[in-house]
Amino acid sequence: MRHFARLIEALAFTPQRNGKIRHLVEHFRTRPDPDRGIALGALTGDLDLRQVTPSLLRGLVAEKVDEELFRLSYDFVGDLAETIALIWPVAEAPEDPPLAELVAELEATGKAALPGVIAARLDRLEPSARYAYLKIATGALRVGVSARLARTALAEFGSVPVEEIEELWHGLEPPFESLFAWLEGGEKPVSAARSPFRPVMLSTATDLDQLGPLAPEDFAAEWKWDGIRVQAAVEDGERRLYSRTGEDISGSFPDLLDALDFEGTIDGELLVRRGESVAAFGELQKRLNRKTVGKGLLKSHPAALRAYDILIHGHEDMRAQPFDRRRARLEQVIAKADPERIDLSPLLSFDTWDALAALRADPPDPVIEGLMIKRRDSPYLAGRIRGHWFKWKRDPMTVDAVLLYAQRGHGKRSGYYSDFTFGLWDGNMLVPVGKAYFGFTDAELKSLDRFVRSNTTERFGPVRAVKPELVLEIAFEGLNRSTRHKSGVAMRFPRIARIRTDKPAQEADRLEALTALLPPEGPPA
Amino acid sequence: MTADAQLYPTPEGLYCPAGDFHVDPLRPVRRALITHGHADHARPGHGAVLATRQTLDIMAIRYGEDFTQSRQEAVGRVRIGDAEVSFHPAGHVLGSAQIEIATGGRRFVVTGDYCRHPNPVAAPFEPVPCDVFVTEATFALPVFRHPDPAAEIGKLLASVRAFPDRAHLVGAYALGKAQRVIMLLREAGWDAPIYLHGALERLCWYHVEQGVPLGDLRPATTDRKTKADFAGQIVLAPPSAFAATWAQRFPDPVICFASGWMQIRARARQRGVELPLILSDHADWPDLLRTIDEVDPQETWITHGREDALMRELDLRGRVGRPLRLVGYEDEAEA
Ligand SMILES: [Zn+2]
Ligand SMILES: [Zn+2]
């Protein structure tokens, strides 16, 4: 448990993705089975534990510590598990039981016996291990590691493509011993699960210059819809919907699942669609990350699949066949589907790249974010392989905003102010509308850093407010309505396109310029 | 005369009328008795200062030789008006002392800040029997049980081994913490040069003069050094330096911070710390209670810190407590 406690501490305090991966790889390399697999399951949310409630924990600590002292401590620390871990009476002879033993015990213990079991463990653990134990028991690790990141670390540990791990993932469960055996040079496990996730084919960015030398007749083109790329898999009647990184999101989309009346695996875009009308991305977001979906939301925000490709049909694996052949099969399959829920992403006809450029410049629907261009003879390949699929995104939207706050960066950006909050005019006030931390060169970072240091008006911890004088051209991919932001808008992928030292702050854009670009509101959720 | 007429808080700080002096005054006064050299306890501009030799030296280093009009080294028992005072080691930083004040048949001990953990840079705390024990309470919550310092330094060295291409920047206050970190590193076998931010140099050299063997110390300047030369090295700096362009000279640095506050995760995260090192020069909760039991005073007064929790615990133990709520001692600084 000591090792796991150290791991989650390191993960929680390491800001950089690569640093986190390094800690994970080190843990997988040095810890034995089944502990490392249980640790992995804890991080990916695959441990199936009875939820220990905060009130149970409060009850336990009330028996050990004066109520007033506990209250003062909790006020100061701000986290229940952390307060209990620190305040619990010192273990006379602390033990270091394996993580797997603690998890197995929690799994095997009934509700009535749970408080006694937890208290007995707390009595014999060190504070950092108590913290890790309580975080597992309450199912809230919160160390900034997604399941995807954990799988990326596994891929690095075993020197295998992450797609292969994603493909296997849904047939595996903690403690993942067969997976680790494979990653250490043993035999690759065979997935026993039905309707497994298959690695998704991804595109690389392109533009007219790069397309120029290619023969247009060798390529098919279709719209790139602004939804969520998904994979719908049905095998022997078992239906599943996966995100493009292999997260099983079936639970949030029962309406779409009902409509998966085929056998096979289809690649497509998940959208909220009412008849012909595709809703903005923000409306789809309302359907995400829900354990249960109410009837009202199912009706007001119906989910639909717009099909791009077919990987498996029946039990026939089509991935090695050329795109044209797969497309023909896809058309047959979709023809039989419920058109309210599942339709085909139409192919665009074009003779020249200029003709395609003209289509891109004037898409027929605001929920289109660009074009997908696919080589007609491409097999369906795992991952982002150059030369097969291209995305040609719509030009980003831009706005001229004023720099308001800057925050210090980490790692290679230590000592630099590298996270920038910018705002637009609303009346004679500047309202923050977003935050950008990339898009600039090293030289631009230096000049931004210099500006921040010499124009600071206030400091709050790692953040500085600056004189509202520097105009930044912000490029972004889209806009959502947001109730969390004071401005009411949230930008997608904002980045600093240019530093406009030539422009006075008074001439920066107004908030109305941005809100005018918002998608229509949609019905209440 | 009641105890609270013999020693009481004023806007200038804790005041003893019998000797007409203040202890660790927050504003300039005629006569000051100073427990230790931390900036919130030792301020410049007094008429006269009585303190240990080392505290006087530290004040002169920090504020210049003219930090006070007259100074006197505390040796043995010193008579001031109708009070007799003496200084006893507090184990907090080099030169730190508790001040014993005897007046009108009553004995007070004002601890300043103190630490019970063995600390190679300070003489160990000495419990002094008294009637009124005037204690600090910086870490007076039952969540504060400072871990073994050697294990904390072990975390730092493990990280240096794990990230040999990165520099480790350790935030440590200039008086006490910086030297403690260096000594702990030396005890753990780290013989390599340790690099210092300019703001730490003078006090480190003063410790060396006073016989604290800090080993090979070098300025963390960039003359003749490239970024890559700091890879795998340990650099000490005051925490404020992390916000300065100074930090830009190091390769992908791991930001560490040595402080008792690092026990609390939210505090470490707030400061953008990647490697928190829980190293405190103050008494933790068990040590505060142990010390009060050992000294066994009739009353315990609390100068600064988390007095609510300590008051509650004194109450539970049937002891008499009294919060003085002195304002002006910062617990964020030099803790
Ligand atoms: Zn101090
Ligand atoms: Zn203090």
Characterise the protein shown here.
The complex is a heterodimer of chains A (525) and B (335). Chain A has 20 helices and 23 strands. Chain A is α+β, with helices and mostly antiparallel strands and 525 residues long. Among the domains of chain A are: 201-393, DNA ligase/mRNA capping enzyme (D-amino Acid Aminotransferase, Chain A, domain 1); 397-515, Beta Barrel (OB fold (Dihydrolipoamide Acetyltransferase, E2P)), CATH 2.40.50. In chain A, the strands form 5 sheets. In chain A, strands 4, 5, 6, 7, 8, 9 and 10 form a 7-stranded mixed β-sheet that branches. In chain A, strand 15 and strand 16 form a beta hairpin. In chain A, helix 1 (2-13) packs antiparallel against helix 2, helix 1 packs across helix 9 (127-137) and helix 2 crosses helix 10 (147-158). With 335 residues, chain B is of the alpha/beta class. A 7-stranded mixed β-sheet of chain B has the order 7-8-9-10-11-18-19, with helices on one face. A 6-stranded mixed β-sheet of chain B has the order 1-2-3-4-5-6. Chain B has a 6-stranded parallel β-sheet with strand order 14-13-15-12-16-17. In chain B, helix 3 crosses helix 4. The radius of gyration of chain B is 20 Å and the shape is globular. The model of chain B has no long low-confidence stretch (mean pLDDT 94). Classes of the chains: A alpha+beta (525), B alpha/beta (335). The complex binds zinc ion (2 copies). Residues 40-41, 113, 136, 138, 329 of chain B line the site of one zinc ion.
What is the compact description of this entry?
The complex is a heterodimer of chains A (525) and B (335). With 525 residues, chain A is of the alpha+beta class.
Approximate strand percentage of chain A: 15-25%
Task: Examine the secondary-structure arrangement and name the CATH architecture of the largest domain in chain B.
Answer: 4-Layer Sandwich
Low-confidence stretches of chain A: none
For the sheet with most strands of chain B, the description reads: 7 strands, mixed
The major pleated sheet of chain A works out as: 7 strands, mixed
Rg calc of chain A:
26 Å
- Main-sheet strand order of chain B equals 7-8-9-10-11-18-19
Q: Which quaternary structure do these chains form? A: heterodimer
Number of helices of chain B: 8
CATH class of the largest domain in chain B: Alpha Beta
Q: Ends of chain A: how far apart?
A: 44 Å
CATH architecture term of one domain in chain A: 2-Layer Sandwich
Percentage beta strand of chain B = 25-35%
> Helical amount among residues of chain B, as a percent range?
10-25%
Most extensive interface between two protein chains, with residue counts: A-B, 34 and 39 residues
- State the CATH superfamily name of one domain in chain A: DNA ligase/mRNA capping enzyme
Fourth CATH level, the homologous superfamily of the largest domain in chain B = Ribonuclease Z/Hydroxyacylglutathione hydrolase-like
* Count of individual beta strands of chain B: 19
- Listing every helix as H and every strand as E from the N terminus to the C terminus, the arrangement of chain B reads HEEEEEHEEEEEEHEHEHEEEHEHEHE
